[in-house]
């Protein structure tokens, strides 16, 4: 394995520092908001397809309050585009309250919300103050799926991961 010489390391370090300084000087008049716009993460919709053998699943029913949230900073933590499972947010994902997370509902479980007639994948958690809640994700640029909160039965589909 080839190792870099001390001279090469210094040259690479200088290039990195100069690149950073060039960026700062070319954007010195930009506001923080301008820089956030230029550096914001890309929002992607990730199509997800599950192939489930019905003999390998557990189905549980719960009655919960259902709300919706977006990736606006006011509605999330410091990383609005990253879920509790470490994935990028996407349409079709949801968050569950911490009283349910990893007790009744696990990351990656499929959740069918009866009143919405839609499937979601559990990727995130809500603030600890919420109880028995499923929070449906939508992008801040999209229309809100519904207003307020609704009480609904949900069906939790969990694959047997031991196989």
Give an account of the 3D structure.
The protein is an alpha/beta fold. It folds into 2 domains: 6-39; 54-159, Barwin-like endoglucanases. It is 18% helix and 27% strand. It has helices at residues 6-26, 32-39, and strands at 57-69, 93-96, 110-113, 118-125, 133-137, 150-159. The protein has a 6-stranded mixed beta barrel with strand order 1-5-2-4-3-6. The longest helix has 21 residues, at 6-26.
Number of domains: 2
Structural class: alpha/beta
How far is the N terminus from the C terminus?
Answer: 40 Å
Number of helices: 2
Overall morphology: elongated
Here the CATH topology of the largest domain equals Barwin-like endoglucanases
CATH class of the largest domain: Mainly Beta
Using brief descriptors, characterize the structure shown.
alpha/beta; Barwin-like endoglucanases; six-stranded mixed barrel; 27% strand
List the helices and strands and how they pair.
Layout: H1 6-26, H2 32-39, E1 57-69, E2 93-96, E3 110-113, E4 118-125, E5 133-137, E6 150-159
Parallel strand pairs: 1-5, 2-4
Antiparallel strand pairs: 1-6, 2-5, 3-4, 3-6
Please summarize what this structure is.
The protein has 163 residues and is α/β, with parallel strands linked by helices. It contains two helices and six strands; from the N terminus they run ααββββββ.
